[in-house]
Design a protein that fits this description.
- The N and C termini lie far apart (34 Å).
- It contains 6 helices and 5 strands.
- The protein is an alpha/beta fold.
- The chain has a 5-stranded parallel beta sheet with strand order 3-2-1-4-5, sandwiched between helices.
- Strand 1, helix 1 and strand 2 form a beta-alpha-beta unit.
- Helix 4 runs parallel beside helix 6.
- It has a single domain, classed as Rossmann fold (3-Layer(aba) Sandwich).
- The radius of gyration is 16 Å and the shape is globular.
Length: 149
Amino acid sequence: MAGYTRIVVAVDLSSESATLVARARELAAEGAVIDLIYVQEPMDSVYLGVVPYGPVFVGMDQVEDRLREELRGKLSALGEEFGVPESHLHFLNGVPAKEIHRFAEENDTRLIVLGTHGQKGVQLLLGSTANSVLHGASCDVLAVRMREG
């Protein structure tokens, strides 16, 4: 099996992220490059519309900075667990689907691997990151069904 030569694994840094990296390794050609990416959506954009003006709360920037450092640590630990070099760990900021597309385009990606939780009802109508990535990617996308719970 030839496999993919350049794979991006978009992780949410939950305990299920290891499943995605393992699946990507199964599909990788010998000597393939695997990039792990995490996209942190800025808190002010997450809460946009809830609080129309100004910061969501005093000290939000400090909370976001602490969260960023904690998440960077989780990304590094995941990379270490799977032997992904630090140069292939990417912590991005922005809208997840847009950043995943941008990164994939800029890095000649052949496959994007991400998890999906099988959205239903209103969540399905609003769309999910996996759905947005699938419909906007210029390369293959593997959406791995994650367990519910």
